[in-house]
Amino acid sequence: MDIFRAVYNILWGDLITIPLPGGSSLGLSLLVLILVPAGIYFTIRTRFLPFRMFPEMIRVTVENTAKTEREGISGVHALIVSTACRVGMGNLVGVVAAISAGGAGAVFWMWVIALLGSSTAFVEATLAQIYKEKDPLYGGYRGGPAYYIHHLFVKKDSRRKKSLLAVLFAISGLICWCGISQVISNSISSSFENAFHIPPIYSTVVLVAVAAVIVLRKNATVRVLDIIVPIMAACYFFITIFIIVKNAGQLPAVFERIFAEAFGIRQVAAGGIGAVIMNGAKRGLFSNEAGSGSAPCAAAAADISHPAKEGLLQALGVFIDTLVVCSCSAMIMLLTPMEMTQGLEGMDLLQTAMQYHLGEFGVIFIAVILWLFSFSTFLGILFYARPNVAYLFGDNWISQTLYKVLALVMLFVGGLAAYQFVWDLGDVGVGLMTVFNMIALIPLASKAIESLKDYEKNGMGKQSRKQ
């Protein structure tokens, strides 16, 4: 436990502390020191891709919805899988945590991190496409950071079968996703107990049983996510729009509060501007996953005409996650009178806000939508696990099935009890994944930039050659 806490503090603790006016301080963690400069670097290298290529992101998304013969999943299917994980726990629990700890200003810094993160997401998804390989078990393609890290450190004629850094990434990912499995089921059982007074054992058994039916089948995951993700995102979005329109008169005050607290007009005097910035940054990084190496595990599975196209799709995924869905969660809470939410945190804060806006229906709605968000996240992380299990243990059904069973056990245990260690396990896992991924991402970035230049040179919207 001491070693674990030490690793946690190195990754997420204040590695550097910068004093600020008013007695406040800005603590910079290792992950922030890595991801924020990397996001700026990739944004400059791609010539501000999130802004100038946004129309092309939309066009590529529309293009990839057309049904054609493919060896693997489509680019949009890969986007749906990664969105299932991004638009999940981070968008509800993560945003609530950010606002609880950092106030309304944390929302602004989540937006900033998303704009930077979309460039990082482009680079890692494009690399996943460039270095993908055939999947003999599930069909189609597979890949991700473990595979492009391997190509960086292991030469083609080398006798080495594994790269140490790639192995460490794969292990970190599998540990992280087991930890997240417990967090998912605990959040679901808690919300169902609050909304419907259902004992955790019943909601957990149903959750695990439904999950087992899907994940233990060969290729059911993507088909189920195709149905769940658009429905849950649309329902949540339209309910939020209804709440915003209903409270339109309060919007100027809400945005004024976000920007005022973001730049510390009140917080500098109170000595809390550092908490505002860092909570927004940390939760933004955790929510959109850009740089962590998770989404490339799905991006590599896409059968698409050019690697850069998948990069653009995954960059759009960061926009969808943070600028749309996270903003929806933030508005629900910030349009609620402060006196009603004062002292509340976590799901109690979100459910109280929904009850204020929609009455008892709001509490029920958020419990159901949390179930969908969390369930889709669980399906998505098991899709992420496939190529990493294969990299570590080879192409066999035994190792694939054993990891799925382990994840289902974690899902069951988490629904019955909350362990802080397990919550921190997810943070440590994603933190280590990010460090190992970024070690390879920066030297390999030139490959993704070349792919982007090739895509633009050969005519966007045309069938370009594969890398």
Automatic annotation (TrEMBL):
Pfam families: Na_Ala_symp (PF01235). It is a multi-pass membrane protein. It is found in: Cell membrane. The keyword Transmembrane helix applies. Its main location: membrane. Signal peptide: none annotated. It comes from the Bacteria. The chain crosses the membrane at residues 26-44, 164-184, 196-215, 227-245, 257-278, 315-336, 356-384, 405-422, 428-445. Keywords: Cell membrane, Membrane, Symport, Transmembrane, Transmembrane helix, Transport. Belongs to the alanine or glycine:cation symporter (AGCS) (TC 2.A.25) family. This is Alanine:cation symporter family protein.
